[in-house]
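Self-study notes.
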Amino acid sequence: MSTGAVVSGWGCAFPPAQPQEHYWDGFYGPGVGGDRWLRRVFMSAGCERRHTVFDPTVEDLSACSTGRRMERYIAAALPLATGAAVAALESAGVAATEIGLLCVASCTGYATPGLDVALAEALGAGTGLRRMLLGHMGCHAALPGLGAASEYASTRRRPALLVCAEVCSLHAQPPSTDLEQVVAHALFSDGAAALVVAPVGAGLEVVDLAAATDASAAGHLRWEVTDRGFRMGLARQLPDAVGRQVGPLVDGLLAGRGLHRDDVAGWAVHPGGPRVLQVVADRLGLDSGRLLNSRQVLAEHGNCSSPTILVVLDRVRTGLAGAGGWVVALAFGPGLTLYGVLLRADGPP
């Protein structure tokens, strides 16, 4: 497969950020009696700051029903999605009316009509726009979304717009000594990222995609709808389960082009947490500097679920500007599913 499509526009949007200590000192810590060991766990998540639409120190939603949270989802997600989409369109020099497909990924809310309809209207994209909504796929949704946008742009010869928007703070749970919940509250953040995928032009070419699912590890990563919002489950076995799949997935993706790991100039890996990144680096034989972009995005923005890999990929792309080379993007989600995308950055003219 070679889509021939290129990512020609990039954009992101985030709500205000607070230092990691803010969330511990003002919400989570008092709820667990200031436990020092749990504080070490919370503060070792790799996040220096996180973005939240709903700051739990200002508005505690942890006791709200799922219905009440869903009533607020579109109003919270739409400004983020719109901000990222407008930035991507401007970056690509493409008008909203030129877009043929709008692909929206989000796992933090449900509404009908959905975020895709509200976003299309906000952008003034026109009544003939095709829409695709990827829901509840979690952190890896951006990559199958990128695949769909690329195939559309390649076959229909029109630009496509991919927008990932998440409001994880909408699903704050009561503070708990459950380690899965401590880690979930320490990692997740809010934000949006968007890409314009064009049939021709300069940009990051989308070359191939691959996926792998290990159903035996499906329970290691969960996003469960409860009467009190959506509840995240992150098993301690998750990094090792990712590690078992990542080598074969990457090698298969590269082999289709006669490539090897040493041929890859840039690695964009979803920062699901510090241990996930370390396991991926170890299994792929990468030194710590190769995943610096992933670690920096985690530190500066937290894990925003689906938009995060696009933010990392943008940094990798920027770092390769003018140099060119092969790029691999990797993300992980429920299933347990890994997605990989092979891309090619523009080289010297």
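Second protein, same conventions, sequence then structure:
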Amino acid sequence: MPRIVTYNVHRCVGNDRRLDVPRIADVLATLEPDIVALQELDVGRARTNNVDQAHEIADRLRMASHFHPALKVEEELYGDAILTAYPETLIQTGPLPGHPRLPQLEPRGALWVEVEIEDRPVQIINTHLGLVPKEQQIQAAFLAGHGWLEHPRCKGPRILLGDFNATATSVVYRTLSARLEPARRLAPKKTPTATFPSPLPVLRIDHIFVSREIEVRDVFVPFDPAWRVASDHLPLVMDFSVRPEA
């Protein structure tokens, strides 16, 4: 049964203020994921010892990786990645629109990878939205539009996931729920899925949305001590299957 994980890794700096890329890979390995969506990765940045975090984590998990830099400062990059052990093809990466009146806000982006699961193409979109509600609403509407979820190639089994910085009562959540189904709503067993802040999680701001071709088997968050220190978020995990074609 395939397993997908979304995880904001906070540039691999834990709540103990320790920069530790192998620790992130090690805790992810305990979940035995098939697909991983990561947010807040540094690539070649002086503040994190110039490491390509996306590549190192993928290498330790024996996965292929695709990275999209939402932010570029000369040669330094910061952004999101999709890692997988399945056959994969990068379809699209790109920036998300910001708030027109607040151009100083941190740039945000998304990336889209097609993975092949049991000979079925599955579209995976990973994103990390901004912090300002109006900015988030603009970005969610953009993702729901013709450039992403309504793109002619974005058909069949689809999974949208990431750090949306918005709860289930938000406009963002309602906008995306109009296109795809929240995975938590479809899970046979309801368990706590708050992911932030990791030491004492009270907010559900990391989400997974799926199309009708995805059968959700389980959605959960690991609360082990190792996870509580590795990043300021906990990962959100979904076990699923791809429904047979009609």
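Instructor comment on the second fold: Residues 3-242 form a domain with the Deoxyribonuclease I; Chain A fold (CATH 3.60.10.10).
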